[in-house]
Design goal:
The chain is of the alpha/beta class. The protein is built from 8 helices and 15 strands. The structure holds zinc ion (3 copies).
Length: 275
């Protein structure tokens, strides 16, 4: 089965441009002013999320604070499921924007998250999940727990989404393997038990925050080394800060590694042909 992956957002938690910053990358991310160089639209990075589409199904991984604008840009009219990596604000705060989409799902739009992430989502959006609140237009969502075991499966319309545990600072969070692709945002290290889940990849998407090391995110040099270790056919970096200029950084990367950008679409194989 052929699938399309669309990067809805490729920025770090603060987004690019970063508020209050006038560095060259942030300045280049917005419309140019007289006397300034031409803008670089690929430096405009909203909070990280991807859309996976196959055979008419639409699945999103994470709904950050930019989800509303991202869904408009990507033409999302229906969603079949949402998978969550972890409970940080840049990955969950757009959950409430699922409301109008969820009204199309009967009886509800399924969300999948590990226990820790689910508890965070339930706390932030208490009025959505609490039986005490009968807010009439709350999101019609059902939050399902993903077991924390490596390779735990979420089956969606004939496709297995496998949990790939990754280290994010002191936390273990969820990456996903689906068909020939893997999405590992917010990663500072791989778990050894995740390595078998990352074999034979066509597309590897992973965190590359900036050039300098960071306590909770992989930096460019480390991410390049991880790509070399896992040997996918293609690799794309995401969760990018204003520390990396799109064109200048890509010019230094091997041809099979690229910085992703908002709106980038990739075709890949997501599973066996439907019976
Ligand atoms: Zn993040
Ligand atoms: Zn900046
Ligand atoms: Zn995070």
């Amino acid at each position: 089965m052929q699938a399309t992956l669309t990067f809805l957002g490729t920025g770090t938690s603060m987004g690019v441009p970063t508020l209050g910053c006038d560095c060259a990358v942030c300045v280049s991310a917005v419309a140019s002013s007289p006397g300034l160089p031409a803008p670089s639209p690929h430096n405009r990075r909203t909070r990280p999320s991807v859309l996976v589409r196959w055979e008419g199904h639409n699945v999103v991984i994470d709904t950050g604070p930019d989800f509303h604008a991202q869904a408009i840009a990507a033409g999302i009219h229906r969603l079949d499921a949402v998978l969550y990596t972890h409970g940080h604000a840049d990955h969950v705060l757009g959950m409430d924007d699922l409301r109008p989409l969820s009204f199309h799902n009967s009886p509800s739009l399924p969300l999948y998250a590990d226990e820790q992430t689910a508890l965070t989502i339930e706390r932030i959006f208490n009025y959505t999940f609490s039986s005490d609140h009968q807010y009439p237009t709350r999101a019609r969502v059902a939050l399902h727990r993903i077991p924390t075991t490596p390779g735990a499966e979420v089956e969606l319309f004939g496709v297995q989404f496998l949990r790939v545990p990754v280290t994010h600072g002191r936390q273990t969070i969820t990456g996903f393997r689906f068909g020939s692709a893997a999405y590992l945002t917010d990663l500072s290290d791989l778990h050894p038990e995740s390595l078998p889940l990352l074999a034979d990849l066509d597309i590897l998407i992973l965190d590359a925050l900036r050039r300098e090391p960071h306590p909770t995110h992989s930096h460019l040099e480390k991410s390049i080394a991880l790509v070399e270790q896992l040997a996918p056919r293609r690799a794309f970096f995401t969760h990018i800060s204003h520390g990396l200029d799109h064109d200048a950084t890509n010019a230094t990367l091997p041809p099979h590694m690229r910085l992703a950008y908002d709106g980038l679409q990739l075709a890949f194989e997501i599973g066996p042909e439907a019976a």
